[in-house]
Structures are given as structure tokens and as C-alpha cells.
Amino acid sequence: MEQIIFYILVSGILIFSVLTVTSRRILRAAVFLLFMLLCSAGLFFMLDFYFLAAVQLTVYAGGIIVLIIFSIMLTSQVNEKLEAAGVKKSSFSLIAAAAGAVVCIYSILNYSFPAVSNGETDSSMKNIGMQLLSYKDNGYVLPFEVISILLLASMVGAIIIAKRDSAK
Question: pLDDT digits over 2-11, tens only?
């Protein structure tokens, strides 16, 4: 049964990922991205990574998708269709995707994964909280701040682009 659920989730991730990048309606693309993030959270639940699954659901599926949908509602018309990708763009995209897949597969096959000791790690809420708030080794404050600045810059850029087009 676990394999069936795994294949359903993986096929959902693949299908919704392709639909996200090929949809010509931006609101539908955001909804497809939401479904893809929900399927990836399902994978985390299957792997017993409950904290990552909860973060995936609250931060990405909850917060980021709501931010994207509000950005779409504020900056463009919902029924607006994006331009169709031409043959040149599609071929370059296919070449880039194939090159990325080759690099990923080559890296995975040639990397010697070190053996992991089965020593216990402290997974208490206090330790997880300290790691999330730490800026030293195994800390996550710097990547979180970089991502928040990137999201802020993309929101400001989207609003500027939308206001410039509406002024014409």
C-alpha cells in the first residue's frame, strides 16, 4: 500500500509541476503549484519527517501560495492569458531541462555517500528552535532572511511591472 501511495504522490508531483510551468493562466499555475506542494508534503509524511511536512504545509502551501495569489489578484487580471511560448523558447527550455537532468543524474551516480552512524540526535523542540534561530553552524536564520528578501524583491518587482503596464 505504501508503494501505491508513493507512486500516486510522485505522479502528482510530476503532473502538477508540468502543469505549473505550462499553464497559460497565471492563477491556474499558482493552484497547480499548491497541489504540487501538497503532494511533496505527503512524501514528507510518508518518510516520517513530520516537522518538514508541517513546515511545507504552513510556510509554502499556506503562506507562499497565498502571497502569490494575492500578488496575482493585486497586479493583473485573473482571466488574462500569458503569451504562448514559441518554438525557440520551448527548444531552449527543453535543452536546459535535459542538461540539468544530466548534471543531476551524473552527480548522484558519482557521489560516494558516506555511511551514517545510527547515533541518536537531540530532536527536542528546544534544539530545533535553537537551530532555527541560530546563525552559526547548522543555523537557519541567514537562509531564511535571504529568502524573505528575495520574496520581498519579487513582490515589489511584480507590482512595479504591473503598474507600468496599466499606466500605458
Answer: 899 999 999 9
